[in-house]
Specification:
Layout lengths: L1 H15 L5 H7 L5 H33 L3 H21 L13 H10 L2 H14 L1 H20 L1 H39 L5
Amino acid sequence: MFRNILLAFIPVFVAVDAIGLLPLFTSFTQGLEKKEKIKLIIQSVITAMCLAIGFLFLGKEIFKFLSITSGDFMIAGGILLFCLAIMDIVNSEEKRSITTKDLGIVPLGTPLIAGPAVLTTSLIIVEEYGLYPTLISIIANILLAGLIFLLSTFLLKVFGKSGSKALSKITSLLLAAIAVMMIRKGITQVLGMGG
């Protein structure tokens, strides 16, 4: 059970990329008081948690209804994750102008914490490692993202802006490798050669 939790935790950790989100989080929350920042962090964590867990259960039902196999989704999800990883590696930092009113919900809660990469990864790893390890890994990773945001000022001093960008690129590369692994496993399942 612990091994499955750990194996499920790693791809979700890479997909969330909380350290890579630090520069964006600090630019969004610049000039806000500590109380406001904490309120936004709580709002973003609750949003991400509800979305990711809800999608985990709803996604499985959609699979059953549409007769989509885990192999089909592994291939499609792997391709999507690979594209997201490549876009993150290639693209420069996006300029965003957002009001602070619903900042915790959009874009922090979704799509930054619980975005397409997290939703796709969670649906794929639930087939691989089971429901409870996946749920635990999603909850742990979203709480960890909240903690990283809470310590954002300190962590940015440690890593620096360029350091956190470099870490983000490394996690994107890992995400691309995980995507290739998912495509490979999906193809073997579809071809009936086992996982």
